[in-house]
Structure to design on (302 residues):
């Protein structure tokens, strides 16, 4: 039986903590590090060399070094995509926290077109005092270089009426299919309002085909049995969709009316980023974990 490895792919550049800590926290088995062409062996600072030596000395880690032009989008995308393809069948993660901004964009683009999970690690000043944090007194780079147009990719998310349903589920402890039909009727959602179906059976079929099936297939909701009924509940991916995609005014009002403790959604939204306001994973919480608990070291690990 083939063992599935956890593979981290990243573009190296001026970082240590945001490279190393995810490797150990997420229990990576292999790390593919992309360096700029001609940078190795002498073009990296000493602290990066020490980091490489420490990683290579870790017996359970397999470290692979590749080169690419990390300031050229095509080259960087190709490097990330090829690294993902070379590890098909394994759990592949792309760390987009490090390297050039072009490399981060390339990592995200590769993740959209390949079977990989991108993640970002926030920077932290740790225990440093404010006056100990270095701030440049002058611009880091004195001049601008070539302007490069970037390609656009269409992100396909839930439809407007599906987002309305997700908004109704947000903060709620599930809803029956009957309750969702009643909500759709009250709000005159198109899949109900534009049909001639009058029977309960017809309405349930419409709900299933237009709402439940696509949202379930996309991982936005789950359907569970509750006694003799089936309840629909929003998943984290559904909450992420509410944060990521444009919402109509009616959907925003629906979200606001939900149970969003300790403060209402819109009140929080005005004070912080939209994602922080809506996410059930608070971004300023040190215990925030973007992946399943099984991806992390536990206190029982030796």
């Amino acid at each position: 039986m083939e063992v599935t490895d956890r593979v981290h792919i990243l573009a190296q550049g001026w970082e240590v903590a945001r490279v190393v800590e995810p490797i150990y926290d997420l229990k990576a088995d292999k790390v593919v590090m992309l360096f700029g062409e001609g940078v190795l062996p002498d073009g990296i600072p000493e602290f990066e060399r020490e980091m490489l030596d420490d990683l290579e000395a870790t017996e359970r880690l397999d470290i692979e070094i590749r080169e690419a032009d990390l300031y050229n989008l095509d080259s960087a995308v190709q490097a990330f995509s090829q690294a993902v393809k070379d590890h098909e069948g394994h759990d592949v993660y792309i760390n987009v926290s490090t390297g050039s901004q072009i490399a981060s964009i390339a990592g995200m683009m590769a993740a959209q077109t390949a079977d990989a999970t991108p993640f970002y690690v926030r920077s932290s000043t740790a225990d440093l005092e404010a006056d100990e944090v270095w701030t440049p007194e002058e611009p880091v780079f004195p001049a601008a270089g070539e302007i490069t147009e970037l390609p656009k990719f269409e992100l396909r998310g839930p439809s407007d009426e599906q987002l309305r349903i997700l908004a109704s589920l947000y903060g709620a402890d599930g809803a029956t299919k009957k309750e969702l039909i009643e909500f759709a009727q009250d709000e005159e959602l198109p899949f109900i309002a534009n049909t001639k179906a009058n029977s309960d059976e017809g309405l349930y079929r419409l709900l299933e085909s237009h709402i439940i099936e696509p949202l379930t297939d996309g991982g936005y909701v789950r359907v569970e049995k509750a006694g003799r009924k089936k309840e629909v509940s929003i998943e984290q991916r559904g909450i992420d969709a509410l944060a990521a995609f444009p919402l109509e005014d009616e959907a925003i009002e629906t979200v606001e009316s939900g149970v969003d403790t300790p403060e209402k959604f819109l009140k929080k939204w005005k004070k912080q980023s939209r994602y922080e306001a809506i996410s059930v994973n608070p971004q300023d919480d040190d215990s925030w974990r973007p992946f399943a608990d099984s991806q992390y070291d536990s206190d029982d690990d030796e």
